[in-house]
Amino acid sequence: MMNMNRGVWTALSGIGIAQGLKIFTNKKANGVWDWRPIFQTGGMPSSHSAGVSALATYVATKKGWNSTDSALAIIFGIIVMYDAQGIRRHTGEIAKIVNDLDANIETLSGQMPGLFHVKQEKELNELLGHQPAEVLGGALLGIVIGLFSSCLEER
């Protein structure tokens, strides 16, 4: 297998575990077992937050909180988490409005023969970003994974 450093494996583990947990949080929220969330963006916990938090925690425990490496990982993580709950979430909310608007115009065009409308073939993806609680959940998961990875390496 490819020889990657421990930081990469730690971050990828955070992402993978968070994506896997989405099956269970989706079941709790909707009452139905569904495997699709494992392959989707959005949802609880944020895999973006878990990955960058796991990496930043791992780097900080190995290099020290005052190192340049830790500063880079932490700032990178903050930017990713801010984007996940900010711009990406708002983009998903706009997609929902556009999808609803398209459905409403489709209904109106059926009731008004003079109103011509071509319905979108495919709806826009609405689940793009995260609510702040999802980002926080991912960040906490990532911190635990980063600490665990660091402790395992010391043995």
Summarize the structure.
The protein is built from five helices and no strands.
Could you explain the architecture of this structure?
The protein has 155 residues and is mostly helical. Helix content is 70%, strand content 0%. It has helices spanning 6-30, 47-63, 68-85, 87-111, 132-154. The longest helix has 25 residues, at 6-30. The mean pLDDT is 82.
Present the secondary structure layout.
Layout: H1 6-30, H2 47-63, H3 68-85, H4 87-111, H5 132-154
Helix pairs in contact: 1-2, 1-5, 2-3, 2-5, 3-4
Q: Considering DSSP H and I runs of 4 or more, what fraction of the residues is helical?
A: 55-70%
N→C terminal distance: 22 Å
Biggest sheet features: none
Q: How many helices?
A: 5
**What is the count of β-strands?**
0
- Mean of residue pLDDT values: 82
Poorly predicted parts? none
Question: How would you spell out the order of helices and strands?
Answer: HHHHH
The rough form would be described as elongated
Class of secondary structure makeup: mainly alpha
Write down the Rg. Answer: 20 Å
Strand content: under 5%
